[in-house]
Structures are given as C-alpha cells and as structure tokens.
Amino acid sequence: MNWKSLLRHETFLALLLVAVLIVLSFQSDRFFTVSNLLNQGRLMTEIGLIAIAMTFVIATGGIDLSVGSILGLTAILTGVFWQKLGLPLPAAAAGAIAVGTFAGFANGAIITRFSVPPLIATLATLALYRGLAEGISQARSVRGYPDWFYVLGQGEVLGVPTQLWILAAAAIIASIILAYTRWGRTVYAIGSNEVASRFSGLSVEKTKLALYTASGFAAALAGVIFVSRVSTTRSDMGTGIELDAITAVVLGGTSIFGGRGTIAGTMIGLCLIQALKNGLSLAGVKGDGTIMLIGAVLILAILASNLFERSGTR
Amino acid sequence: MTAAPYVSLAGMSKSFVGVKALKDVNFDVRPGEVHALLGENGAGKSTLIKMMSGLYSPDAGTITVDGKEVKFASTRDASAAGIATVYQELLLFPELTVAENVFLGNYPRKPGGWIDWSEVRARTRALLDQLDTFDLDVDAKVLTLSVAQRQRVEIAKALSKNARILIMDEPTASLVESDVQRLMAVVRQLRERGVGIVYVSHRMPEIFALADRVTVLRDGGYVGTRDIGEVDEAQLVSMMVGRSIDSLFPKADAAIGDTVLEVKNLNHGRHVQDISFSLRRGEILGVAGLVGSGRTELALTLFGMTPATSGEIALEGRTVSITSPRQARDLGIAYVPEDRGQQGLVKQMAIRKNVSMASIERFSSGIFIKAGEEAQRALDAVKRLRVRCRNIGQPVGELSGGNQQKVVIAKWLETNPKVLILDEPTRGVDVGAKAEIHTIMGELVKQGVAILMISSELPEVLGMSDRILVISGGRLTGEIDRADATPERVGMAMTMHQSGEAA
Fold first, then answer.
1. Which helix (H) or strand (E) element contains residue B226?
2. A144 belongs to a structural domain
3. Best CA proximity match to A270, nearest among A292, A306, A301
4. Nearest-angstrom CA–CA distance, B490 and B287
5. Which residues of B touch A258 (CB under 8 A)?
6. Does residue B498 lie within any of the structural domains?
7. Which residue has the higher pLDDT, A45 or B17?
8. Segments forming the whole domain that contains residue B71
9. B398 and B471 share one domain
10. Rounded CA gap, B261 and B274, in Å?
11. Same domain, B27 and B104
12. CA B334, A190, A52 angle in degrees (round to 5)?
C-alpha cells in the first residue's frame, strides 16, 4: 500500500481518458478545439462541484441523493428572493445559498442525530426539497436577470469560462484537504471503520454533519451558477444530477463502501463522462446510445480496477 | 493408538507473494485421536488447516487420505473426503433455523426434488442429541443462539456430512468456562466414536486435558510432534517460541503513588450498578468477572461511550463528567477495547495512520498532518513495542493478533494517558506476544500510568494485578489485595449474587 497502488485506478482512468479524447477527435473535427473543450468545461462545472463534495460523503461510506433537489430549490429561491422580495441580486443569491447549505445541514442532522441511513434520509429529502421548490415556484419561471449576473455562468475570465475557475479552485482545495489534513484522514477512517474511529476519539458525528452541510453548499453554489448559465429559473433544474455526480465519483475510484477515493479520480471521471457525452453527440450518436456507453464504461472501469487491485495486493 | 493415519500431509509448503507461510511441514491425524496443533500467531497453523480443508492448494507436498494420494481443488473435495472444519468465526446464516443451517447445501429430498423438511428436522434433532445438546430447538433461528450453541450447530453440520476428521480452529477462544467444559465433553465423545480431531488452541490446560498428540509449528516451519505424555507445558512453550520464557507473568514492582481515578456510585443501565473504586498511579487494578457481568460496560462508561447516568468520576481530585470517548481521551483516559478488529483498529489503514489516530491533533500543525513526524513516532512505537511488521506503511490487518494489539496500545500511548483501560489485552494473542504485552504493562506502571485491566483469564488477573475488583451482575462483589488473592476467593466473588450471598 503506497502511492503506486493508490494511484493505479486513477492512472488507468487517465489513460482511458486520453484514449477516448484521441478517438473522439478523429470522429469529429469540431471536438478537439479549444473553444469546444472550454465550453465542455463550462457544462460540467455544476456536476463537478457536487461531485467534489460527494467524494467526501461517499468516502465516509455515505451518500447524498438530495443534491439535485437542493440545486433546484436554490435556483428557485434566487429568483424568488430577487424578484418577489425585491432583494438585491447578490443578497438573493447569498440567501438562497444559505438555505441550500441549511438543507444539507438538515440532511446531516437527520443522519447523525437519529441514525437514519444516509440513503434513506437523503431519498426522503430529495422528494421534500424538490416539493418545496415546486411549491414556491408555482410553475412560473423567473427571467430577466441583469447582464452582470451572466458573467458567472456565461462569461470568461482570462479566456477561460468563469465557473471553471471556481471548479478548479474547489478541486485543488478539496484534494489538499482530503490528502493532507486531519479532516481528510478522519473521512477515510470513518469510511473504513466507523466504530473504531469513534473508539479512537475521532469526532465522527461532527465530521459527517460538516460533510453533508458542505454537500448542500456545493449543490447550492452549483444552483446559482446553473441559473446564471441558462438565464432562467425553473423548479425542475438539477433533476437527476445526483446520479451524474455519483457516477463521476464512483468511476473515479471512490469505494461506495467508503474508505477509499481521491478528488483527482473524481475529476478524471467527470472529464471522461463529459468527453463521451459531447464527443459522441458531435459524432452523431443519439442520446440513448451515449447513456448506454457511459453505463458500460462505468462497469468496465470498476471491473478493471478490481482486477488490478486483486493482482496488486495478493 | 497406532492406528494408521486417516489423513497425512507430507512436506507441505506454501508461499504468498514470495513470503514463505509454510515450509516442509508434516502432519497426520489418526481416527479416534485428538491431535493438537500449536504455534504462535503467524506460525502457519491456519495455512496448514486451510490446505487440509481444500481452501488453499499447496505449492509442494502431498496429501494422503485413507492411503490414497489426493488433491483438493476446493472445500467440496475435502468435505467429500470426510474432512470438515469448524472455524473460529462461525460461518452460519443467522436468519436461518438450526435445521436449515445444518443441512444447507445437501438437503434430503423427496421424490420430485422437493426438500423433505420433516427429514431435515428429524435428522438435525438426532445429530444434536448425539452431541448431548438436548436443549437446542431445531427451529430456532441461529441469531438467537449463544456462541457455544452456534458452535454445536457447526459441529452437527460437520457430522451431517459424515466427517471422519474434524478441524477445530480455536474453538474455545470466545467461550465462557462452563461452555468450555461442555465442548471438551463433546470432543471426547467424538473421539470415542472414531472421529479424528485437529484441535488448534492457545490454551495449555485444554491441550493437556484433551490431546493425544501435539504438533508444534514455528515461523512456518515444523518443530516436532510429541505424544502428550512425553512433554510438559514449559517444553511446549519453548518449542513454540524457540526460547524459554522464564516467567509467564512478569509482574514488575512499581512505586504506587497518589490516587488518579476515583469512582463513586457509578451507574449505567443494568450492567453498571453502584460501582465505587479508586485507582492509583503505578497500579495495575485487575477486573475479574464472568462474561456478561458488566466488566466491559464499566469500561465503556468510564470511556464515555455509554455515559454514566449517575455517580461521580474524579480524575486527580477534580470531578469530571465524561460524555464521549473524545472527552475521555482529552482527560487522559485511554481504552484498548475487547474487540480489536471492530473497535480497536482500522484494519485497511497503515500502521502509521493507526498509531496516530487517537492523537491526530498532536501530529498536525493547523489542519495539516505533519507526515514526517507521524512516521517518526510510528517508527519509534514499532521499535519500542517490538511490533513485527514489514514497514510502518503496512496495513494493520496483515499483522498477527499480538502485533495488532501492540498497535492499538501504541495508538493510546501516543495520547500520554494517565489511566489506561485494557479490556482483554491478551485475548487471541500467542504466548510470546502475551509475555511482551505484560512486559509493556510493567514498563508503563513504572512510568506512573495507572492501569485498569479487564481479563477473563484468571491466571492473568492473579499474576498481573496489584489489586483485584470482582464484578458480578453489574455490581462490585469483591475487592481483593494481591497478597490475599487466590483463585478460590476470586472465583467465589465472581459467582456471588447481588445480595452478597455466594451462589
């Protein structure tokens, strides 16, 4: 167990990503262009932010299914706070993000206080938060945001989409936290053996509460970026995004049982999925075919990494 | 006694990724004998057993069953050849009934392929009766049974396949004394019926009471096979460890100082009732009691896992309330738990990370872990406690039981505890490592640590403690000084009822 074996899955995945990029660039000459790749980066930011927080959650052996609903709720609240309550837009967005973060905190509280399994707890709040979003929106969308707001979702800073900077910063900070801090260590310890972690005096409950809160915050931030990118607010935004995020995390080598996983892996997994989606659609493959291929890649990647694992350790 | 062996293994060797687990070992079992297999953890006992039961295939060597050379490709082959194994961690399905478990995989059938349930139940009943287990209901779900009862079900399962050889891997490791006696009776009875038994155990009294022959392994090598009449305990121990251990319980005399921990009228639920005692610097306070008497619950209450509902805990004269393990740790209380694998260690993680786990703040500057310092402290700990490992990056799960236990102890020593609670510190630990753990305890009390040691092993309690607390039914039923402690006095207090009358 050293760097080599830890990186094995990520290395394999990175090679796969390179191979996919090469194949796709032969399929369509519009794929491997700077503007297309940057645009894809723009599209994957929301899933990416959620997937980063999800990596922590899954590494503790948990899961958060409610992120898509939190995203939708935040999006709606941004519009409602701004248009209906007449708040300045920055305050409206901040308020909506605060509510989304609190929604995550509520998940954590349900899971830690009442020992509800994360799958059940967040399945329930997935319905609850989406219901809230729909109730508040009354099926009306909010449009007509001021131009400066679109910088976040549609603009560029130094030639790179604004939100991609946010994603990059989040990924770097998160990977440092996971790899080098005692919080990261606690996450892995809880995921590997929660009982022993508690018996070692680690603050298991606090850590989990913080992670689900962070997951809510990531989803809320993604919600505001989403609104800025698509210029409108609708209550069904982010439906199913939790599955995309979980796919990226698991593809990236994070064990669904906890104890193992890296941010680098998640980011590669994310790029792989986005490259497949975009490249295949440019090559004229229909949406259904793309989804099927992503499913197949997921299974193959997991099988291959299990194979490596076995031959590597025993 | 000179019947031809039913199974014999000759020149067995096996390596795992270049490490020789077993080299050139010979072993045989005759019908109607108990053949004990002895060795420290990591000596190769499990590897040998697993080859006999078809789980591993040997790199070299031959297995002969009933005069014919065989190769086991799977456990099915071994079981067809009449070899069955009762593993330490019992492999039953908790949600199924006793009868369903016993015949799982080879249910008797009625015409048309339907399972003949009345036959299943009748034959299970007959098998259990043969084991003098009349009190066990064949329709009870296995999850409702005690460990001893489950073991009986495993044995019945082995017999249902007409086992000629029964391998028992540390069958008494998790049994209480009365169940041990019963199990030994069952083993004797099986021997009478001509079953050959391979008996793996660390406990010398059992081996001398049961075995006809004993084979000793050390570091994967074959040391020798003796008739039980030819050897005594000291000889066996020296065969196992390759040196003689002078004293089984090296009680170090430490200067006993001021009171560190004072507990008054502590309560938690049914298992901790009105417990009062004090513990002093440099003292080893033994806690004796039957399984289920409340010993572990007392430890968990002191450690904040199950906070006290009433009563007073004072540390160095200051009254404290302890509501979480984290708080207990900050106050200088450390707990080495009973269940090493579940509670003590994160087995997948490296030794280095386990050693620092309870004191991770100490190894951090801000939120960042100081990896260099962490590695250095782990290296020191490994050296000081003589943990045998490849390097500090090795996952603890790969270490033997004794070395795992040393890692748990090392983890807690990093917190500089004032009070160290050891719950069954040497359970499932081989003789050599056991002596080392006792030596470590001696060194700690010399440094002024106060130790509360819970143990099921009476000789350990009597040998190591300065004073002994006895618990029965959640209450303190005795407090005995080292000078007055005899097995009889402690045993009497252990079975005392709450009213204070002897049972």
1. strand B221-227
2. yes
3. A301
4. 10
5. none
6. yes
7. A45
8. 7-241
9. no
10. 16
11. yes
12. 145
Question: What average pLDDT does the structure give for chain B?
Answer: 87
| B364–A189 C-beta distance less than 8 A | no
- pTM summary value: 0.76
Q: Are A219 and A246 in contact (CB under 8 A)?
A: no
- Looking at the domain assignment, is residue A60 inside a domain? yes
Indicate whether B502 pLDDT > 60. no
3-state SS, B305-356, equals CCCCCEEEEEECCEEECCCCHHHHHHHCEEEECCCHHHHHCCCCCEHHHHHH
Q: How confident is the model at residue B239 (pLDDT cuts 50, 70, 90)?
A: confident
Contact between chains at B348 and A189 (C-beta distance less than 8 A):
no
Is B424 a domain residue? yes
| Last-in-domain residue among B194, B209, B241 | B241
Provide mean pLDDT across the span A73-79: 94
In this prediction, residues B80-93 reach a mean pLDDT of 83
Q: What secondary structure, in 3-state letters, does B56-86 show?
A: CCCCEEEEEECCEEECCCCHHHHHHCCEEEE
Pair A91, A266: CB distance under 8 Å? no
- pLDDT band for position A309 (cuts 50, 70, 90): low
- Residue A5: the pLDDT is 53
For the cut 50, the answer to whether the pLDDT of residue B500 exceeds it is no
Q: Which two tokens stand for residue A81?
A: 């706070």
Q: Which residue has the higher pLDDT, B18 or B411?
A: B411
Interface test with B, best of A187, A199, A206, A314 (most B CBs within 10 A): A199
Using an 8 Å CB-CB cutoff, list chain A residues near B325: 198-201
**B397 and B302 in a common domain:** no
Q: Are B171 and B5 in contact (CB under 8 A)?
A: no
Q: State how far the Cα of A250 lies from the Cα of A273, in Å rounded to an integer.
A: 12
Q: Residue B3 carries which DSSP code?
A: P
Q: In a 10 Å sphere around its CB, with 0-12 CB exposed, 13-18 middle and 19+ buried, how is residue A219 labelled?
A: buried
Rounded to whole angstroms, the Cα distance separating A62 from B258 reads: 47
- In whole angstroms, how far apart are CA B353 and each of A76, A85, A186? 45, 52, 10
Do B147 and B226 fall into the same domain? yes
Residue B485 lies in a domain: yes
- Residue B89 confidence (pLDDT): 67
Lowest-pLDDT range of A139-143, A254-258, B85-89: B85-89
Q: Which of B337, B369, B393 sits opposite A180 (nearest CB)?
A: B369
* B369 and B429 belong to one structural domain: no
| Residue B246 pLDDT greater than 70, yes or no | no
The answer on B426 and B319 residing in a single domain is: yes
pLDDT digits (tens, 9 = 90+) for B182-205: 888 889 988 998 999 999 987 788
Do B349 and A188 make contact, defined as CB atoms within 8 angstroms?
A: yes
Residues B230 and B86 occupy one common structural domain = yes
Q: Which of A189-193, B88-92, B136-140, B164-168 has the lowest mean pLDDT?
A: B88-92
The mean per-residue pLDDT over the stretch A227-245 comes to: 89
In the predicted structure, residue B3 carries a pLDDT above the cut 80: no
Nearest-angstrom CA–CA distance, A131 and B240: 68
Tokens describing residue A108: 């954590």
Of A180, A193, A198, the CB nearest to B325: A198
Instruction: Name which of B451, B484, B433 is nearest B285 in CA terms.
Output: B451
Count: domains in chain B: 3
- Beta-ladder partners of B29: B7
State the Cα–Cα distance between residues A10 and A2, nearest whole angstrom: 14
Whether residues B233 and B159 fall in one domain = yes
Task: List CB contacts (< 8 A) between B345 and chain A.
Answer: 193, 196
Within-domain flag for A4: no
Percentage of chain A beyond pLDDT 70 is 94
CATH number for position B224: 3.40.50.300
The residue segments making up the domain with residue A176 are 47-267
How far is Cα A306 from Cα A283, in angstroms, rounded to an integer? 31
Q: Is residue A306 part of a domain?
A: no
**ipTM of the complex in this document:** 0.85
